[in-house]
Design a protein that fits this description.
The protein has two domains: 156 residues, Nucleotidyltransferase, domain 5; 176 residues, Nucleotidyltransferase, domain 5 (2-Layer Sandwich), CATH 3.30.420.40. 38% of the residues lie in helices and 21% in strands. The protein contains 15 helices and 13 strands. The protein has an eight-stranded mixed sheet with strand order 5-4-3-2-1-6-8-7, sandwiched between helices. Strands 11-10-9-12-13 form a five-stranded mixed sheet, with helices on both faces. α1 packs parallel to α3 and α6 crosses α15. Bound molecules: adenosine-5'-diphosphate, acetylphosphate and magnesium ion. The site of adenosine-5'-diphosphate has 15 residues, from α10 and α12. Its main location: cytoplasm.
């Protein structure tokens, strides 16, 4: 039987999966990849495509408010029925929070699983599903190693000053600090960058702009600062998350409107961001296509916040040699890149408008003092690579 590594990326409302045939090195193009979207809604759907990009599944998952468990079950049943010819030799799981304990990919045993379960309060929208995914795959493939690949790991290189909140020091000692997320994406970009820029080892800011969005500053391809913090709501405006917010607003709303922790959690994670500001959609495509002023306001705030955070990250890394856009929005929304770069001309950034419109890899103009690049991320490949390396496959 042909051997392969399966990767699972369980998010707050989606489960993504990919299958990578074992090879040296592993090809970045998965044999099959896909996702179940709309978990928790009445419109849950699974789509999958083969290596050539042809759709091989496009089906609704029946049920109301389909849970992650039901989605996992449907996915695994479909997968086993359609890919029985593959022997899965490892499963790589994206685990959003590694706490203070984990700074590298780790084989999951009972103790590790207990630790991951204890991190659930640190990332309530992601970690429960990451843990559930590991349990589901353990039950299905009991003799296959499960590898936890942490979103926080890449950011452990940040200096203490970048990780510390201005809170009483006993809290910092308890682990209340800035962790940072999207680490698998940043790690992939850090590996890919030397192929595209001779400044890869310099001061580089990467903007991972997806439904969740963050930015990270690297020096010599190691993280020195990032916009996401203790939780996955800090920093940039996101699809449904508010980003940087005066904590006084939370106190005020709880005090004056009697909102509970549950109410606040829903508002800050699910009802804010592009969706909350526009009142129209969390989807950047919809907002860019809309002529409503509220859509324009949301897009404008999204870009403004990126440009503001860029200035802050450049201060943290002492300058900038390259800026990289990645994630669904970073890779596809030329208009977002244009606005961010226009507001960042003070840094010596100059965009080549045609290259930007074509989504070229290098989109900076000849006279730009900063290399500006678009590099598609591949968190799935990064996990497969980690599993292969850790298990010496
Ligand atoms: N062609 C496009 N133009 C503008 N935005 C796009 C385009 N394709 C995808 N996006 C946006 O990318 C976002 C999703 O990014 P993605 O990285 O896939 O998210 P996730 O965090 O779920 O992995 C959505 O806001 C979507 O609208
Ligand atoms: C950490 C995070 O925000 O993840 P995602 O973008 O997958 O929601
Ligand atoms: Mg993502």
């Amino acid at each position: 039987m042909k051997q392969a590594i399966l990767t699972i990326n369980a998010g707050s409302s989606s489960i993504k999966f990919a299958l990578f045939p074992l090879a040296h090195p592993i090809s970045p193009d998965a044999e099959v990849s896909g996702q179940i979207d709309g978990i928790g809604t009445n419109a849950t759907k699974m789509v999958a495509k083969d290596r050539a990009g042809e759709k091989i599944a496009n089906q609704a998952i029946a049920g109301e408010q389909v849970s992650h468990d039901v989605a996992f079950d449907a996915l695994l049943k479909w997968f086993m029925a359609t890919h029985s010819g593959w022997q899965i030799v490892a499963v790589g799981h994206r685990v959003v929070h590694g706490g203070e304990r984990y700074s590298a990919p780790t084989v999951v045993d009972a103790t590790v699983l207990d630790h991951l379960t204890s991190f659930i309060p640190l990332a309530p929208l992601h970690e429960p599903h990451n843990v559930a995914g590991i349990r589901a795959l353990q039950a299905l493939l009991p003799n296959v190693p499960q590898i936890a690949c942490f979103d926080t790991a890449f950011h452990r290189s940040q200096p203490d000053v970048a990780q510390t909140f201005g809170l009483p020091r006993a809290l910092s000692a308890e682990g209340i600090k800035r962790y940072g997320f999207h680490g698998l994406s940043y790690e992939f970009i850090a590996r890919a960058l030397p192929q595209h820029s001779h400044r890869a080892a310099g001061r580089v800011v990467v903007a991972h702009l997806g439904n969740g969005a963050s930015m990270a500053a690297m020096v010599n391809r190691k993280c020195v600062a990032t916009t996401l913090g203790f939780s996955t709501i800090d920093g940039l405006l996101m699809g449904t998350r508010c980003g940087n917010l005066d904590p006084g607003v939370v106190l005020h709303l709880m005090e004056t409107k009697g909102l509970t922790v549950k109410d606040m959690t829903r508002m800050l994670y699910k009802e804010s961001g592009l969706l909350g500001v526009s009142g129209i959609s969390q989807d950047m495509r919809t907002l860019l296509a809309s002529d409503k002023p509220e859509a324009e306001e949301a897009v404008n705030l999204f870009c403004y916040r990126i440009a503001r955070e860029l200035g802050s990250l450049v201060a943290a890394s002492g300058g900038i040699d390259a800026l990289v856009f990645t994630g669904g929005i970073g890779e596809h929304a030329a208009e977002v890149r244009r606005r961010v770069c226009l507001q960042s001309e003070w840094l010596g950034i100059r965009l080549d408008p045609e290259a930007n419109a074509r989504h070229d890899i290098v989109i900076s103009a000849g006279n730009s003092s900063v290399d500006v690049l678009v590099i598609p991320t591949n968190e799935e490949w990064m996990m497969a690579h980690h599993a292969q390396t850790l298990l010496a496959l």
